[in-house]
Every structure is written in C-alpha cells, then in structure tokens.
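Appendix C reproduces, verbatim, an entry submitted by the partner laboratory led by Prof. M.T., so that reviewers can inspect both the input and the predicted structure.
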Amino acid sequence: MQSENHVFDRFRLDGKVALVTGASYGLGVLFAKTLAEAGADLVLTARSADRLNETKAMIEGFGRSCVAITGDIRSFADIENVVQGGIDKFGKIDILVSNAGTGDPRGLPSELVEPDKFLDDLMTDLVGTWYACRAVGPHMLRRGSGSIIMLSSILGQTGHEHRTAGYVSAKHGVNGLTKLLGVEWADRGVRVNALAPNYFLAESTRGMFESSGMLYWVQSRTPMRRMGFDEDLKGPLLFLASDASSYLSGAIIPVDGGWSASGGAAQHAPPFDGWNNTTPIAPPGWKRFDEEG
C-alpha cells in the first residue's frame, strides 16, 4: 500500500545531486538551502571562494554532502571543471540550477548605457547559462535523466519600462533557450524549464527599495500588491527540481504575483528617472514622477 504522503514524497530530493551556480549570495544561497532541506547533496560554484565556503558550511549543517568549486560562469573551461568536480565527488549530477547572473540597477535610458555593458550582461546572464547547460547536458543525456532550471525574469517576458537593455535581452534569450532545449532533450529524459521571478524583497534590499520609491512602484504594478519573498520561490523551485514536474519541459513559470498576466504599463514614471537624474526622449506632456502637474 502506498504511503499517505506518496504525493508529497515526489517533491523530495533524497539521493539526488544538484549543481547551483552563483551560490555565494542572494537567490543562489536560497536555492542551495532549499534543495538541501529537501534531501539533495550539493555542488556549488561562484567566483568568491570565501562566500561560497560559507554556503558550503550551511549546507553541511543540514547533514548534506557538499563540494564548493570556484569558477566564472563566463568561462566554459571553468564550468566544465565544476561539472567534472561534482561528478568526481558524487558520480552524477541530477539537477542544474543555472542561477548566476548580473544586472544594472541604475535604470538608465538605453541611449545612455555604456555600449560594453550590454555585452557584459549577455555574457553572464545568457552565455553563462548556455555554458552551464552545455557542460552538464551531455552527462545528463548519457544517463537518460536530469532537470535543468534556468533563471529568467519578468523582464524576459515583454518589452519593459525598466530599461536595462542587456539584462532584458539576455532574459528573453534564456526563455528561448529554455524552449529549445526543453523540446530537444525531452525525449532523452532531460527536462529544461525556467523560473521567471518578479522583484524580490529581502532584508539586504529592503532599505534600497523603500528609500528609492521602487517598493511603491513594484507594488503598483503587481496584482497581489506586494513584492516577492524568499518563501515564494521555494515551492516552484522544488516542483521543477523534483519528480513532481515529471511531465513538464520547455516551460517558463512566472513567480510574479500576477505581473506578467496583467499587461499594460505602470501609471507612474519609474523612480530611477529621479535618482539617476535623466529623462529619456519622450513625447510632449510626459513628466517625471518628481515633477509638478
């Protein structure tokens, strides 16, 4: 007779090995912790050895095995070394969470962004994601199983008034890569999906969001009228990592409080037009949020 908890057991990751990129801070630490709590052993990578080892110590504190290997996601040789190190340690990698990324918080109009910043964002957020998939994909395909989880964004769903051209283009590319690999590798047992989060509020970012005006702006655009919290991402991550999503591939799952379903644009000019002291070329009557009238 099946256990009463059989359905919930499908979310467990006991005996699985997960690789998390960008695991030295932010969502990377959250994802590593969530996977470990569900029973997975971890392979961690990031550029910062000190902070990466802090994450490793946390994972081992849950009683899980963990190996931390420094590397730059923008180097295919580095990420190949990370994958091989994980296989040498555990004999396999079942799950990839391609989390490493960068962005541009200034909100500059595209005509004022440094030309090379676009390439920097693409190299980390799109090319780095491809490198991680390319490094671990052959191993998973040979074994006939695996789950790859990309990190997209609400900014990869549409054009958007948050004018980070490189980041937005990279996340659109991540969505396309998710669909391509999700279709190409599905019949060989490897599922490829993506999470597309809204802006998330953490203790480290709360002050910035509240003082800058971004908190009100994000809430005004989000049907749930709040920003995301760490707890909101744990369930979707485990769903994609585990057997609970065994018939899902090529999907981009919005974790955004209804943002992507709402359409339209914000009713107020974005706050970053105030803090970077720039006004884009705009039609007559357009006003910055701090202007009268």
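Strands lie at 17-21, 41-45, 66-68, 95-98, 146-151, 190-197, 252-255. Additional entries are available on request from the coordinating office.
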